[in-house]
Amino acid sequence: MSLPGDTRSIATAGTGGSDGSKSAVGFVGLGAMGGGMAAALVKRSFAVKGFDVYPPACEKLRAMGGAAATSAADAAKDAAVLVLMVTTAQQAEGALFGSQGALDALPPAAVVILCSTVPPDFARSLSQKLTAQGKGWELVDAPVSGGVARAADGTLTIMASATPAALAKAQPVLEAMSAKLYIVGDKPGAGSAVKMVNQLLAGVHIAAAAEAMALGARAGLNPRMVFDIISHAAGNSWMFENRVPHMLDNDYTPRSALNIFVKDLGIVLGEAQSLAFPLPLAAAAHQQFLAGAAAGLGREDDAAVVKVYERLAGVTVATTLPSSSPTSSPPSTSCSSPLLEPTVQSKSAMLAALPPEWTGSLEVGESVEQSSGGTAGEGKAGGGEGRGGAVVPVVPVVVVLDDDPTGTQTVHGIHVLTTWDVETLTAEMLSLTHAPRAGFFILTNSRALPTEQAASLTRTICSNVVTAARQAGILSGSPPSDPKGPVCRGISIILRGDSTLRGHFPQEVEAAEAVLGGGVDAWLLCPFFLEGGRYTIGDVHYVADGQDGLVAAAQTEFAKDAAFGYRHSNLKQWVEEKTAGARSASDVASISIETIRKGGPSAVFKALMGLPKGSVCILNAASDSDLHVVTAALRSAESSGRSFLVRSAASFVSSLLCIPKIAPLGPPEWARLLLGGGAGEECGGEGEWGRKLKRWGWVRSGAGGLIVVGSYVPKTSAQLEQLLSRLGASLHVIQVSAADVASDSWQGERREAAVAGMAAEAEDALRAGRDTVIMTSRELVTGSDASSSLEIGSRVSAAVVDIVRGISVRPRYILAKGGITSSDVATKALGVRRARVEGQAMPGVPLWLLDDASRFPDLPYIVFPGNVGSSASLADVVQRWRTDPITPPPAAPAPAPLGALSTPTPLLSTLDLVRAAAEGGYAVGAFNVYNLEGVRAVVRAAEEERSPAILQLHPSAIRHGGDALIAACTAAALAAHVPIALHLDHATDLTLIERCVHQGWFHSIMADGSHLPLADNIAFTQRVATTLAHLTARAPEAPAAATADASSAAAAAGRGAGVVVIEAEVGQIAGVEDGETVEEIAGRLTQVEQAESFLQSVPQVSLLAVCVGNRHGPYPPSVLATPDSILNLDLLASLNTVTSRHSAHLVLHGASGLPPRIVLECVRCGVRKFNVNTEVRAAYMEALREAAGGEGEEGREGERRDLVDVMGEAERRMEGVVREKLRLFGSAGRV
C-alpha cells in the first residue's frame, strides 16, 4: 500500500501529451458530486466533455467552460480518460454497455475511472468485463469522499486501486480532483472496500448526530446551544459538524441525498454478510435511513434523517436565531416588538391544537345598518332595494388585480382580462349586471415590473375601473330596472398577490388607495392559500413542506427571492419590514383564528367595524371555513358603510365570490366542456353548432402539447427534473440558455437566428405529435440589485415569448410554468385579451379557455405556478394531458343493466351535425356501411375532406355483421379526427330499436313507419319515442314509476333534448333499398298537411325524411332525361317551412344518382341530411367484379391479385365516392 505522498511519483506516462498539454476527459454523471468534480477538472485546464440524463446539468458544465455531450458515447469519444460518477452499479454498467453507451465510442487503451460507491465485487467484475473486450481498456476503482464543496474545489479524498499501468494513465486526473489520493491496492475492488468502511462510519455518524440533536430537543435544550457545545467537545465528528447545521436551518437541499445512504449502507451490510461479520450499529443506522425513505424523504439531504426522530418524539430540531443586522428597516424602528422568528412546526399538531371550525350560520347575528355608499365613498354595495314588495339582492362587482396569472387558482366560470381600457372594463361590468358571481380578474403582471412602474400601473388600472363602474351605472345612478337576479352596485377591489409574500407591497396598495381617495378604512392582508399549503396562524405565515411540517415563510426559498426577499414570517413584523418602519408591528391589528372559530361572523364583523381609520389588519386562516366566516363578515361590514382594500392570495377571492370547488379537469372533461356547450359563450359571429365542429377538430388534433418552463424557484427545477426523468424519452426538449440571453453579445442577428431556429424545431416536433418542452436553463442569472435582476428576467422571458410567437402549429394544449412566464406567453405570444377560467388542471393550477382574439381560440391553457405542488406534480399533469380525450370502446359491446348506456359514444350526435349544417347552409352525408372496408372508406374520406359524416347501419347490415360491425363503427367514430355520428337506419322493429339503444350502441335512430297509414305511422313513432324516453331517463337505481311520464317530460324539454335522436319518414319513397322492393306505384309524396300533423303528434322527432320524387336505388334513364322534373322542389320548400316551424330538419333519402345541380337546389330548400347507399355499394361491387374477371387469382391483365389487394381497391373506390359527395353537400372543410 502506498502512502499519499508516494502517489505523486508513480506515473511514468500520464494523460498529458508530450508538450505538457492535458488530454480530453469524458465525464458521465454530473449530479451534485459529479458536477463539482467535472468543474474542478475544467479549472485545472482539462478538456472535459460531460453527459447527464438531466440536460441542465450539461448546460451548467458548458457554462463553466466544459463541453456538453448528448450521450455517454458522445462524452467518451476521443477521451483518454473516462470518469463515471453515477449513483448505482447498475447505472455504471448501463453508461458503459447500454444503448449509446460509452464503449461505443471510447478509444482503445483508454482508462475508465469509476468514482461511484459500488460493491467491491462489482468493481472487480466490471474490470474483467472491460479487459475481455480486447481493446486495452482498464478500470481504476476510485471512490471518493468529502462532499459537494470539496468536489468543486478539487480537494476530495480518493481511494484508488488498479494496475500500475492504469494508475499511471489516470494519475493526473485523480490528482486534479483530490487533496488526498490513496493508492490502496493493485487491483480494482480494494478502493471500494475502503469506501465501504468509510460509508459505514459516515452513515452511523449522521444517524447518531440526528439522534443526539433530537434527544436534546426532547430534553428542552436549545438545539443551537447543543450544537455549539458539542462542536467543541469530545462528542464532535466531521459529520456532526457538517450535517447538524442543515438540521438547524431546516435546509434539506440535497447535497447528498438520503437515498444514497440507503444504498451505501445496504452495500456495507451485504458485504458484511458475505464475510459473516456482524454490524449491529450499521444495521440500526440503515433502518433509520430506510424509515426516512419510506416517509418520502429519500430525495432530501441525508441530514433529513433527523425528521424520523422528530416525528417519533414530536419535537423540532430546526430553529432560527433573530438577525442582529436588519437590512430592510431603519435601526430605530427595526421590529421593536419582542416577537421572535418561529421554528418549524408539526402541521398536524398545530392544526389539531386549534379550536374546532365554525359550523354555525354565516349570517351576522346583529342588526346591520344598510347604506347606499360605494367604493372610495360612492356606490358601496347596499343591502337590497324593494321592487313591488320584493327584495333584490345587491352585490358589489369584485375586481381582482392579479399581479401574475396564477391568482385564478381557486376559481372557475369567471373571466380574466389582459387589457384594461375603460371601454373594455365597462363592457365587462355591464355583462355582470345580474351575474351570480359578479367579478372578474385583470391580469396586471406587475410582479415582473420595477416597483415604480408597478405602482403607476396600479393607479392607472384603478382609475379606469372607477371610470368604467360609473359609466356602467354601478357606482352612480339607478340600478337596472330588470328585477331578475342580484343587482350589482359598488365595486370591491382585491389586490391578489403571492401566497409566499412576494410582490410590490405596500406600494401597490398605496397606489390603489390614492385613486380611491379617503374612502378606504383599512388594509386587510390574507395570504392563506389551502391548495398551496399556506397557513396563517398566530399572525405567522407558514408554508407546508410536503410532509407534516409547517415552515415559517421567511425560512423558505421564497424569502430569498432576488427582488422580493424578506426576513420575517410574523406578518406584523413583515409589514414593518416592508414599509421600512412606517407602520410599526405593534400598530398592526389582527383577527385571530380563535375569534373566527369561536365567535363566527358576528365577532369578525365587530372586529372589522372597530378597526381604526388607516390601519392594517392581518386575517388569520387555516381552512377554507375560516375564510368563509371572514368574507361573510366583510360583506356585512361593507354593507354597513365600511370600505377595505384587500391584499390576498387566491383562496380569498373564491370565498368572497362564493365559488365552490370542482374536481380537476383533464382532456376528457375538457372535451365534454367544449363540445357540450359549457365553455366559451362567444362564437365570434359563428353559429354554436358550427363552432362545435371546429372544436372537435381541435380536441382530436394529433399535434403535441407545448410545455414552457421559465420559473427559477427550486420547486420548479425539482419538478422539471422529475418530468424529464419520467417522460423525457417521449418529450422533445429545447433549452434556452439564460446566460446567453442575458448577455449583450447575444442580441441582434444572433438572437433572431437562434429564436427562429428553436421555433422551427418546436414546430417540427409538435407537428409530429411529440409533446415539446421549451425550458430556460436552470442556472439563475441575477443582477447587482433587484431592479437589474428583474431586467434580466424580462430579457429571458422575452426570448421565450418570441420562440412561442414563432410557432404556427396549433398545439394540443399549452402549459406555462411560472407566473411571469405564463403571463408573457398568454399576452405577448398568444395575443390573449380575455380568457375564461374553466377550473384547474390540479389543485392550485388554473386552466383557461382562450378567447377568439387569441392566436389559438378555445385552446386549453394551463397556468402552472412556480411554487405549487410536489416534485411529481408537473409530470403528473403532463402525463394526464398526453392522453386521448375520448376513451376508446371495449373490443365488443358488453351487456348492461336496462337504462345504462355503457358503450362510449361520440361526443357529437347526428342532431349536432345536422344543426351545424343548418347554421352553415350545407348538408351532412349519411352513408350506409356493411363491412369494415365501408367504415374505413367513410371515415378516411371525411378526415381527408375535413368534413363531418354519419355512419348508418341498416337492420339487414346488423343481421349480417352483428355486434362486431357495430363495435367497428363505434371504434372508428371515436378514433376519427373529425366528427362521425352513428345512426340506425330504417328500423321498423321496436324490439331491435330497444336492444340497440339499451346496449348503448346508437344514440340516433330512424323509426320507419312510412309503410303504414299515417295514423299508424304516428302511433308507431310515439311508441318508439316513449320507449326511448324510458330507457334513457331510468337510472339503474330508480324505480320504473319514476319515469311514467318520461315521454311528455322529454317533449316539454324541447325537441331533441333527450339522449336519443329520432328520425321518422312521412310518405313512402319508391325504389329498392337493401333488397326490399317497394313498387313504384306505391311511392307516395309527402303532403304538407301530413308533415304538419305528424310533427304536432310526435314532438320528439328531430329529423323528418320526406318523399318529393326521390327514390331508393338508381333513377331510371327516363327519369334522368328530364332532370328538372325529378323532384318537386316547390313541395320540398313548403315542407321545409313546416319542419322549421317545429324545430325539425329535412332529410332526403335516395341521393345516389341525383344530378349535382338538383342536390344543390335541395340544400337551398333546407335539406340537411342526405342518405347515400347505392353509389357506394356500386363502387364496391365494381371492384369485386373487376378482380373476378380473370382466371383464378389473376386480374384481367394477368396480374396476380390477393384478397387484401381486392379489399384495398374496393375501399379506395368507395372512398372516392364518399369524398365526391361530401364536397357536393358542402360539408368539406367545415372541421
Topology readout:
Elements: E1 24-28, H1 32-43, E2 47-51, H2 55-63, E3 67-68, H3 72-76, E4 81-84, H4 89-97, E5 111-114, H5 120-132, E6 138-141, E7 144-145, H6 148-153, E8 156-161, H7 164-176, E9 178-185, H8 190-218, H9 223-230, H10 238-248, H11 258-274, H12 280-294, H13 306-313, E10 345-346, H14 347-352, E11 385-387, E12 390-392, E13 394-402, E14 414-417, H15 422-431, E15 439-443, H16 451-471, E16 487-496, H17 507-516, E17 522-526, E18 534-537, E19 540-544, E20 549-552, H18 571-578, E21 589-591, H19 593-609, E22 615-619, H20 624-639, E23 644-648, H21 650-656, H22 667-675, H23 688-699, E24 706-709, H24 714-727, E25 732-736, H25 738-742, H26 749-767, E26 772-776, H27 786-805, E27 814-817, H28 819-829, E28 834-842, E29 845-850, E30 860-864, H29 873-881, H30 910-920, E31 924-928, H31 932-945, E32 949-953, H32 955-975, E33 980-987, H33 990-998, E34 1004-1007, H34 1014-1033, H35 1046-1053, E35 1061-1066, E36 1070-1073, E37 1076-1078, H36 1088-1097, E38 1101-1106, E39 1111-1112, H37 1117-1120, H38 1129-1141, E40 1145-1148, H39 1156-1164, E41 1167-1172, ...
Parallel strand pairs: 1-2, 1-4, 2-3, 4-5, 5-6, 8-9, 13-15, 13-16, 14-15, 16-23, 17-22, 17-23, 21-22, 24-26, 24-27, 25-26, 27-30, 31-32, 31-41, 32-33, 33-34, 34-35, 35-38, 36-39, 38-40, 40-41
Antiparallel strand pairs: 7-8, 10-20, 11-12, 14-28, 18-19, 19-20, 28-29, 29-30, 36-37
Helix pairs in contact: 8-10, 8-11, 8-12, 8-13, 11-12, 15-16, 16-17, 19-20, 20-21, 22-23, 23-30, 24-29, 26-27, 27-28, 31-32, 31-41, 33-34, 34-35, 36-38, 40-41
